[in-house]
Amino acid sequence: MKKLSEFVIGEKGTIVKVGGEGRIKRRLFDMGVTPGAQVMLRKKAPLGDPLEITIRGYELTLRKAEAEFVEMEVKTW
């Protein structure tokens, strides 16, 4: 188990839990960041913020602070 914000480029995993409260959790859910979704980290900005991920067949950009709330199970597929 690892947070999405700790992933390295090219690493893949499945979302296990989305933390946070109120608006932040709702925002993540609205963007499709939900338990069971498979994610791959595509890019990181030079200072590590923001992150670009592939989820549900599309590219999504998240702030590192948002990615801190997403707990992942690392996959080796």
Feature tags:
alpha+beta, 6-stranded antiparallel β-sheet, single chain, 77 residues
Description of the molecule:
It is a single chain. With 77 residues, the protein is an alpha+beta fold. The protein has one domain (2-75): SH3 type barrels. The chain is built from two helices and six strands; from the N terminus they run E-E-H-E-E-E-H-E. Strands 1-6-2-3-4-5 form a six-stranded antiparallel beta sheet.
Short synopsis of the structure:
The protein has a single domain (2-75), classed as Roll (SH3 type barrels). The protein contains 2 helices and 6 strands. It has helices at 22-30, 64-67, and strands at 2-3, 12-18, 38-44, 51-55, 58-62, 70-75.
Percent of residues in helical segments?
Answer: 10-25%
Helix-strand sequence: EEHEEEHE
Q: Span from first to last CA? A: 16 Å
Tally of contiguous helical segments: 2
Q: What structural category do the secondary elements indicate?
A: alpha+beta
Give the total of beta strands. 6
* Rg from Cα: 11 Å
Write the layout of secondary structure elements.
Elements: E1 2-3, E2 12-18, H1 22-30, E3 38-44, E4 51-55, E5 58-62, H2 64-67, E6 70-75
Antiparallel strand pairs: 1-6, 2-3, 2-6, 3-4, 4-5
